[in-house]
Design goal:
Order of helices and strands: EHEHHHEHEHHEHHHHEEEEEHEHH
Shape: globular
Number of strands: 11
CATH superfamily of the largest domain: P-loop containing nucleotide triphosphate hydrolases
Strand content: 15-25%
Number of helices: 14
Number of domains: 2
Length: about 325
């Protein structure tokens, strides 16, 4: 059994590639129409999935209970399909649902914005302005969807085994590359149980472990996601001091890592005593690990950045926020 997930930028031919790949391999294509049909077996009124498929409100807190129930049930339906079929799943956060599972291949289909806008103009009969707006809205929806379900960044390259740039490839060439990856990785030889076991529990554990410590970190993550900047949240912890037994007694965990810039970022929007302590740790980190690139974002830097891009929360929302944990 095997599962291939296709993540796609709007207008990059992801839907066509997924459909043709499923036909070529004899896999079941899991797209909106498939999920609507399957959903109707669970709930005769399929209107909810038609409205909520790959959609999350701009503010997660605005999501109503019915919409949230629909969004959280969709992954379970996809897992049920994977129990009986080889799948090509297009979108629906499947790269998060099946991440790190054996027997899976995660593909991302991309293209330049100009290339994609032209395709959308042609296929949807839109003006250039309409196509750009439509593209941007779809991109943001998919960012929010994956973030809401799995606390993952859609643009993170570590989520994908294969990224295809459609400016330089034909659809046939893209299909051949994916099929070669399927053969080389031998994903069809993996037992069905290995693919689906522990999927739900793993997702729940990740949601527990990926909470942001401070509201400013969540706001900064939203900023990075909006502009398609890949990042990891607290991916590494650096020992700064050990005792005689070799046990780490002091460590430093920067808030964010930007892989494209090879840069760690530490946000400091708290009281002065904590700012001073963080500065000391950063100095020690630079001395012990000179190869590490790190930058501190002070409160003024953070607020200027948020204000510049219209993302600054009102003062009434920020005044009473305190960090939820202490650093080592």
């Amino acid at each position: 059994m095997a599962v291939i997930t296709i993540s796609r930028e709007p207008g990059a031919f992801g839907e066509e590639i997924a459909a043709r790949l499923a036909g070529k391999l004899g896999f079941m294509l899991v797209d909106k129409s498939r999920l609507v049909d399957y959903w109707s077996e669970v709930d005769p009124d399929a209107a909810s999935i038609k409205n909520d498929d790959e959609w999350i409100p701009l503010d997660d807190l605005d999501i109503d209970s019915e919409t949230e129930a629909t969004v959280r049930l969709l992954p379970e339906l996809i897992v049920q399909l994977a129990e009986d079929h080889d799948l090509v799943v297009i979108g629906r956060g499947a790269q998060g649902l099946f991440r790190n599972c054996p027997g899976t291949l995660h593909v991302k289909i991309v293209a330049s914005r100009q290339f994609r806008v032209r395709n959308i103009q042609s296929n949807e009969e839109m003006s250039s302005r309409e196509a750009r707006r439509w593209t941007r809205d779809l991109e943001n929806q998919r960012f929010r969807y994956l973030r809401f379900l799995y606390h993952l960044n859609w643009a993170d390259p570590n989520l994908y085994d294969l990224t295809l740039q459609m400016n330089r490839l034909s659809i046939d060439q893209a299909l051949n590359l994916i099929c070669c990856a399927v053969d080389e990785m031998q994903i069809q030889q993996v037992q069905r149980s290995q693919i689906i076991e522990n999927i739900v529990s793993e997702s729940e554990e990740d949601r527990e472990n990926d909470h942001f410590v401070h509201f400013s970190e969540e706001e900064f993550a939203r900023f990075l996601e909006f502009y398609g900047i890949p990042f990891s949240y607290e991916p590494d912890s650096f020992p700064l001091e050990t005792n005689a037994e070799g046990k780490v007694v002091e460590a430093f965990t920067p808030d964010f890592y930007l892989p494209e810039q090879d840069l760690y970022i530490e946000l400091t929007t708290m009281k002065q005593s904590l700012v001073t302590r963080k500065n000391r740790k950063v100095r020690k980190l630079r001395k012990l690990y000179p190869e590490i690139n790190i930058r501190i974002f002070y409160q003024r830097d953070f607020y200027r950045l948020m204000a510049k891009y219209g993302l600054l929360a009102p003062e009434s929302e920020t005044a009473d926020h305190e960090p939820k944990k202490e650093e080592l």
